[in-house]
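FAQ

Q: What does a record look like?
A: Structure on top, sequence underneath. For example:
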């Protein structure tokens, strides 16, 4: 598939392969590593409920900080020759934080390092997403963005499998399988992930050159904040296409993010074996790889909005299917459905947004976009919590997310009918 890409496009796609390794680790083993350090009766350790609460708070802290920093960093990076410097700094700090995370000996240090790593990882994506306007043409954005997610899903499996084997050999499933200590397993998992993230980023650092930019102004920080508020006002009052798209995006990506973040909780509530869940999680990555490539091909024949709407309908059906979940096979079918649309709905949303915003202000706009993206799953997770606290099943909780996709469908149709305002 890489043969269809230019050298710059290929280098850009590889960063998705790199950062997705950290995403995979964060969705699976990092919460397990954290609870293994935190829960216990020894001085300084906490209960399981406290560990879950503190981990949730940490994710919320990341969301708030990224929401504040994203637009500011994005706007600063829009100035000539800034984006690459900002990007490589965020990547370097993220990789260092990731590797150090494995050496943490207390749960407090572990969660602090995780928060810092997650912040730099998230900020790097703001710069990375906004590079799309510089590395390819508008008619190839859907295809290139889809390739990024596709290869990201399949590439992340390589370091994850190594980390998973280390976890098993560190006694993660049974002490009978233990060959080395749990700390050695954490060090291997985080180090392999961090080094993978760094190595596959090097081609982009070599090839990327900022083409679209704005000139720096005097009183730069003050000017940046003034510009962000002016842009938000413009979006709210004049650029209805972007406004309605962001509303639609927040709704449907909230549903997507909630399902991703709660996939292990769904299986656990159903009493399904952990090993089986992890196997299906890996299988979902492979399915997402294929799904993204299929939609990349379809993007040559169909317009982007139509394809996003298809993905939304797919997720709507997945949510309703959750009402029938009982066995591991049911869970596998649900995971397959999620994989079919998971990468495509994210990649097509990214490329569509790139098309409807000013190229020279892409960093600033993607900072705003990331507020909606990184904040995703907040309301959805709250819905799941309310349903569960009210005595409902996890099946009903997941099915309730169908409302987000229905509303997202409606607002995306409204956005599509608005004139281009950039």
């Amino acid at each position: 598939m890489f043969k269809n890409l230019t050298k710059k496009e290929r280098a850009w796609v590889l960063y998705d392969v790199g950062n997705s390794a950290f995403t995979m680790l964060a969705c699976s083993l990092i919460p397990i590593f954290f609870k293994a350090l935190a829960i216990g009766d020894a001085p300084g350790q906490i209960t399981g409920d406290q560990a879950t609460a503190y981990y949730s708070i940490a994710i919320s802290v990341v969301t708030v900080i990224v929401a504040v920093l994203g637009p500011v960093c994005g706007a600063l990076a829009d100035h000539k020759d800034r984006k690459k410097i900002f990007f490589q700094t965020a990547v370097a700090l993220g990789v260092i934080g990731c590797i150090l995370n494995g050496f943490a000996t207390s749960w407090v240090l572990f969660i602090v390092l995780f928060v810092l790593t997650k912040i730099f990882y998230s900020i790097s994506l703001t710069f990375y997403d906004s590079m799309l306007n510089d590395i390819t043409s508008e008619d190839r954005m859907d295809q290139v963005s889809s390739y990024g997610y596709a290869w990201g899903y399949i590439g992340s499996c390589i370091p994850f499998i190594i980390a998973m084997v280390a976890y098993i050999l560190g006694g993660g499933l049974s002490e009978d399988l233990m060959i080395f200590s749990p700390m050695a397993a954490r060090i291997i998992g985080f180090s392999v992930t961090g080094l993978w993230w760094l190595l596959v980023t090097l081609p982009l650092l070599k090839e990327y050159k900022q083409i679209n930019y704005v000139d720096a102004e005097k009183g730069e920080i003050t000017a940046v904040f003034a510009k962000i508020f002016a842009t938000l006002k413009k979006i709210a009052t004049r650029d209805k296409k972007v406004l309605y798209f962001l509303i639609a995006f927040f709704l449907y990506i909230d549903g997507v993010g909630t399902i991703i973040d709660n996939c292990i909780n769904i299986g656990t509530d159903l009493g399904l074996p952990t090993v089986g869940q992890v196997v299906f999680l890996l299988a979902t990555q492979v399915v997402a790889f294929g799904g993204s490539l299929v939609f990349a091909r379809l993007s040559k024949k169909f317009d982007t909005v139509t394809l996003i709407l298809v993905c939304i309908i797919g997720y709507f059906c997945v949510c309703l299917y959750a009402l029938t979940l009982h066995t591991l096979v049911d869970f596998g079918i649900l995971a397959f459905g999620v994989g079919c649309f998971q990468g495509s709905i994210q990649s097509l949303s990214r490329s569509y947004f790139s098309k409807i915003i000013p190229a020279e202000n892409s960093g600033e706009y993607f900072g705003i976009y990331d507020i909606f993206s990184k904040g995703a799953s907040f309301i959805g997770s709250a819905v799941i919590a309310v349903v569960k606290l009210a005595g409902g099943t996890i099946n009903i909780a997941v099915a309730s997310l169908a409302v987000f996709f229905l509303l997202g469908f409606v607002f995306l149709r409204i956005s599509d009918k608005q004139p281009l305002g950039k």
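Q: Is there anything notable about this one?
A: The chain has a mean pLDDT of 87.
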